[in-house]
Each structure stands twice: as structure tokens, then as C-alpha cells.
């Protein structure tokens, strides 16, 4: 049954009230203005709150998770994501903090691929390669947001990427739904359809810091993956699926992130400046399975990542360099946050041995990822 507060909040949102206030502990969704883009369009900020008091703030600009709170072992909620205080902060340029990524998340070698015999050229925005959808990927567009009625607060974001946009073929209708579940999990459901054969790889690029401060080097990570994808100097997979056993990439049991992150005798660590690789999940089924667990010992916070995707990019904020000042005036130094981007393998359009990322007319792209929070003493 729907809770009254949720309905009330939804109704107020639907009726256009901008200053709806939810009481503490009321589940619901609230809409406020997030300011104006430089082109004059308005962006909104939606606050989703569940009944335990967890909150996700999401803007329809880039579908960005602006903040996400989670309780520590004493029940204290803190924001555990990196981001900016204002819309202009995001618009000035950020390394994909909290954003929806598409049409193709991660890299496509040299910005080129061939599909059904036709060659396509995309922007090369990262070391001669195409990264995260191009110059104006899904992280920089304004999505149409609609609160979804149901037992749990949810927000549906829709965007149609035009045929030829950023060089990709086909009009692509994308729908992403964020649901803040009762069990302190943020669920993201992705859906897409196309009118021409195209390639699709959607993800979210949230940077997490479960301590809410400092760096992520003492976070403990488990990845349910016995192989990873080694890369070349420009971070394009070589095509090999390499066993993690005996390498700094072995996170099959809970391992402190900082333990081997600077082991530059390993060429992969050297190329990635730390971890910036896709791990191949041992369970290759398309069902939702546990891909990763992160534990932060000082706060006791635990994050579990479940996904229907075949791989997960573990990125340790190696390119953060202290030049960005984020929420609350915090300077984002190297390794202030970690990303666990669930996805298809990078560069799949050029690697016939990787699971396909092609989407054809009549098919529906459908994936789901859950970030679930709990604590351990
Ligand atoms: C991804 C990439 C990294 C980096 C970040 C953004 O995670 O794999 O190499 O580009 O995005 O800085």
C-alpha cells in the first residue's frame, strides 16, 4: 500500500509546488529548483527519502546523484558521494561525478567502430579514444523527470538521443529509473530502444567515500571476479581476460584498496595510475548478482553492488588532483572517492570476443544495478 506521506509529496510535486517539505522519517519525493543552465533552461533537484531517513538528491541535469546519505554503525547519516554544491559547478566540468553515462560508457578505441559493415566515427576525448559517450554525453544533457507512484520513492528520467548525436547511429529512447528502497538500497533500472542498429552501454559514475571524508585507501573491497581486462597505455582492453590470481587485481577476498595500489612493478597498475580497469564477473548470468562489496572500518558502513551486467569498472579516483573543490568546500585530492561502474566490457564494439553491446530495432536494452547500504560493527 502506498504511504500517505508519499502520495502527498508526489501530489504536491505533480501540482508544481516547489517548496514541499517532507518531515523527517517520511518517505517521499520532493522537487526544488537546482538553478538555470547557461542556455537558460531550468534544472530541478529531486530529493528521494525512504522511511529510515536515507536520502538521495538527484538532478535531471545529467541524471546526476548530487548526494546520497547512508547511516554509520551508530545510526548517523552522512553524504557518501562526491559532487558539487551547485548546478554551475557541474556545468563548469567535473569528472562525471554521480552522472548517468551513455550512449556508450567507458572507452571505444580511437573513436571508431564498424557495425553491419558501416564505419562510424566518434569524438576522441580521452588519450585518442572515445570516453563516456563523447563531448556531450548523457551526463551533460537535461533529462525529463517524472516521479513514479509506488510504495517506494522513485524518479524516472527519460532522454531521446538523436540519430547521429555524438556520432552514434539511431534515435535511442532511454529511460532510467532511480528507486530508493526501504532496505537502504538505491536501485537503478536502465532501458533503451532504438530505430537503427547501434551500440549501448549505460552506467552511473558515482564516486563513493563511505567514510564521508579523507581518501578511500583504507576501504576494503571484494570483487566477485576471477578475471579482469588488462589494458594498453591508453586504457583500451588488449582483448585478454586475465586471471586476477597472484596479481594486485585479486579482490576475490576482502582487500584493503591501498595494499597494492602503488605496486608499479605491475604494468597494469602503472597504466591505470592505480585501479582503472574492468573486472569480469565470475557469474556471467544476466540475473542480478552480487558484484562487489565495500567496507569502511571506521564508520562500519558497507556497500554491496548487485548487477545484471557482465563487468564492473573499479576506478580509484586516480585523476583527481586537488584542482576541484566539491561539496562543502572539500578539495578533491587523488583517491578521495572510488567508482564501481557496472557495465558491458569497454571497447566491445571493436572486440568480437566480448559480449555484444549491439542493440537492434525491436530489442529492448534492460539492465539493473543496486547499491545497497548496511553496517558492520
Ligand atoms: C572512468 C575512466 C577513468 C576516468 C574517469 C573520469 O572511470 O575509466 O579513466 O576517465 O572515468 O575521470
Automatic annotation (TrEMBL):
Enzyme class name: isomerase
- UniProt KW keywords: Calcium, Carbohydrate metabolism, Cytoplasm, Isomerase, Phosphoprotein
Query: GO annotations under biological process?
Result: galactose catabolic process via UDP-galactose, Leloir pathway; glucose metabolic process
Principal location: cytoplasm
Spell out the reaction equation it catalyses: alpha-D-glucose = beta-D-glucose
Pfam families named among the record's database cross-references: Aldose_epim
What the entry lists under InterPro entries is as follows: Ald1_epimerase_CS (IPR018052), Aldose_1-epimerase (IPR015443), Aldose_1/G6P_1-epimerase (IPR008183), Gal_mutarotase_sf_dom (IPR011013), Galactose_mutarotase-like (IPR047215), GH-type_carb-bd (IPR014718)
**What CDD domains does the record tag this protein with?**
galactose_mutarotase_like
Map out region (Disordered) in residue numbers: 343-362
* Pathway of action: Carbohydrate metabolism; hexose metabolism
What residues does beta-D-galactose bind to? 106-107, 205-207, 276
Membership in a protein family: Belongs to the aldose epimerase family.
This protein's name:
Aldose 1-epimerase
> Which species expresses this protein natively?
Fibrisoma montanum
Give the taxonomic lineage as stored in the record.
Answer: Bacteria, Pseudomonadati, Bacteroidota, Cytophagia, Cytophagales
Amino acid at each position: 500500500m502506498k504511504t500517505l506521506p508519499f502520495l502527498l509529496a508526489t501530489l504536491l510535486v505533480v501540482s508544481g509546488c516547489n517548496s514541499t517539505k517532507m518531515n523527517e522519517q517520511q518517505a517521499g519525493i520532493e522537487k526544488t529548483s537546482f538553478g538555470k543552465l547557461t542556455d537558460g533552461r531550468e534544472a530541478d533537484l529531486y530529493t528521494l527519502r525512504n522511511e529510515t531517513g536515507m536520502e538521495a538528491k538527484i538532478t535531471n541535469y545529467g541524471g546526476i546523484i548530487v548526494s546520497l546519505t547512508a547511516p554509520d554503525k551508530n545510526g548517523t547519516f552522512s553524504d557518501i558521494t562526491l559532487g558539487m554544491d551547485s548546478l554551475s559547478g557541474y556545468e563548469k566540468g567535473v569528472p562525471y561525478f554521480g552522472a548517468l553515462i551513455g550512449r556508450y560508457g567507458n572507452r571505444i578505441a580511437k573513436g571508431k567502430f564498424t557495425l553491419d559493415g558501416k564505419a562510424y566515427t566518434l569524438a576522441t576525448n580521452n588519450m585518442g579514444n572515445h570516453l563516456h559517450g563523447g563531448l556531450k554525453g548523457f551526463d551533460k544533457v537535461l533529462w525529463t523527470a517524472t516521479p513514479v507512484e509506488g510504495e517506494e520513492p522513485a524518479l524516472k528520467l527519460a532522454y531521446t538521443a538523436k540519430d547521429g548525436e555524438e556520432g552514434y547511429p539511431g534515435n535511442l529512447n532511454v529511460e532510467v529509473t532511480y528507486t530508493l528502497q526501504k532496505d537502504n538500497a538505491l536501485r537503478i533500472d536502465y532501458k533503451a530502444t532504438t530505430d537503427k542498429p547501434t551500440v549501448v552501454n549505460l552506467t552511473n559514475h558515482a564516486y563513493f567515500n563511505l567514510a564521508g571524508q579523507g581518501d578511500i585507501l583504507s576501504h576494503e573491497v571484494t570483487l566477485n571476479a576471477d578475471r579482469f581486462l588488462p589494458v594498453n597505455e591508453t586504457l583500451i582492453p588488449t582483448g585478454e581476460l586475465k586471471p586476477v590470481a597472484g596479481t594486485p587485481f585479486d579482490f576475490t577476498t576482502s582487500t584493503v584498496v591501498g595494499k597494492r595500489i602503488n605496486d608499479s612493478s605491475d604494468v597494469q597498475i602503472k597504466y591505470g595510475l592505480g585501479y582503472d580497469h574492468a573486472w569480469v564477473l565470475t557469474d556471467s548470468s544476466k540475473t542480478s548478482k552480487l558484484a562487489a562489496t565495500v567496507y569502511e572500518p571506521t564508520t562500519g558502513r558497507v556497500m554491496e553492488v548487485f548487477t545484471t551486467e557482465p563487468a564492473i569498472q573499479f576506478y580509484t579516483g586516480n585523476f583527481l588532483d586537488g584542482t576541484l573543490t566539491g561539496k562543502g568546500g572539500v578539495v578533491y585530492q587523488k583517491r578521495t572517492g572510488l567508482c564501481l561502474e557496472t557495465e558491458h566490457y569497454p571497447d566491445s564494439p571493436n572486440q568480437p570476443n566480448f559480449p555484444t553491446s549491439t542493440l537492434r530495432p525491436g530489442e529492448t536494452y534492460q539492465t539493473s544495478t543496486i547499491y545497497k547500504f548496511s553496517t558492520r560493527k
